[in-house]
Amino acid sequence: xxxxxxxxxxxxxxxxxxxxxxxxxxxxxxxxxxxxxxxxxxxxxxxxxxxxxxxxxxxxxxxxxxxxxxxxxxxxxxxxxxxxxxxxxxxxxxxxxxxxxxxxxxxxxxxxxxxxxxxxxxxx
Length: 124
Hints:
It contains 2 helices and 6 strands; from the N terminus they run βββαβαββ. The protein is α+β, with helices and mostly antiparallel strands. Helix content is 24%, strand content 28%.
């Protein structure tokens, strides 16, 4: 088992690892909000935050030896479901023709006042 505690200069905002890679090829990515290397929230819209989160997800995937094509499931937490189509456009840009299964959950609140949180699962 391999843990990814810091990726691309970014450290998680709490006591957890960004991802864990199991010997069987499964990679579990923790839920991520839109943060920069200093741990500050990035973006003021759902689209801006989603774009930054997905860039960070890609950094974690690459660090672990995976690509976006290896992602098979995504879970999205969003504080305003009326912004779902805004999120979905960024998501489609990121994944292109690849369509992992996805669950989207409307929530009241996320850490640091984030509008979106994304977790992912990959297999290689």
